[in-house]
Design goal:
Strand content: 15-25%
Helix content: 25-40%
Shape: globular
Structural class: alpha/beta
Radius of gyration: 15 Å
Number of helices: 3
Largest sheet: 2 strands, parallel
Distance between the termini: 25 Å
Amino acid sequence: MAPMTRVRAGSSGIPGDLMVEYYRQRASVGLIITEGTYPDHASQGYVSEPGIATDEQAAGWQQVFEAVHAEGGRIVLQIMHAGCGTHPDINGGRRVLAPSTIARDGKTVTEKGEQPYPVPEAMTTAETQAAREDFVTAAPDRGDTGR
């Protein structure tokens, strides 16, 4: 099953019962690639996007994985950094970091309504390495949620 953003995790970014049921119902489709999941709050790209930045978020994903596995399905977590596709009204007022200072065209939907994408800050080498480490920390290992 191809990944599609579902934005059903609420403001906490914790996968809950709605997401467990959604993915459980689709366990028979073959390999499920989940929706984009942020590894760090600053990299969140959508309102109600699920994360894997906290132990609570990882536990929520574990429930999703267990439900899919119980139905005989296979699932992988797609880890995503939104880069210039986020907004301070989405990522909790954090900086918007991307490879360059080129703003994305258009608008994004925030809890305050549509907003133009901001001009991001270009990531330093250290910030790029930190983002890489966020992915490493979030990556599942041996069937667990990686946290």
